[in-house]
Amino acid sequence: MITDSRLDLYNPSTMASFPAKLALLFLVSVLLGVVCVAQRSANLLQNPDGSGGMTSWRPYGEANAERLSNGNICFVVRNGGHFDQDVELPPQSDGKYVLLIGHGASERINSDSSITGLPYLYSYMMEKGRADRKEIRSYLQGQQLLGRSAFRDEWVKMWGIFKVPEGTTTIRFFLNQAERSGDPHNGSLARFDNLGLYLFATKDEAEAFAFQYQ
Fold it and tell me: Most buried of the four, 89, 143, 184, 201, by CB within 10 Å?
């Protein structure tokens, strides 16, 4: 009598149970995915892809929503212009993790690696309504928020993850164009599209979402 458990794989009765086991594994993976999605908020930005023109965004300087040759609409800034939008956080956001994310492209790529002209995301965490008017709780910068394209008009992902300080009520989300000291703008444009601001219970969840973001 064969007793080696490895050979049980070839038993017809065992093989018959494989589809059921695979179906169960698939169901578990789907349920886990639902749980993971449930741990994040919806996109808290309004008009994140420019489909509504400049609605919900405040433009400063040379900042517009423009239609590309393929019909896609995106946000465009030139000569240091920028957009911003204030996002009200839901109750009980303290201690959670905010993900700033989006795609950017630049007309200008500098051979000396200067950042001038490149798109970048930037934000404040704010506690609005403070009596002392010291509303800014934290500056959100660095990480992967600068869009370093390898060549002209290449779309790249920009993102950063930050813990929400106690008392934060609002995030001011900026679409900026970088400028290195001594290397001024020359009229080139930076583009932004597919922007997002999400809340997560943990940093690991935020990172997992950022890695698969398209």
Answer: 89
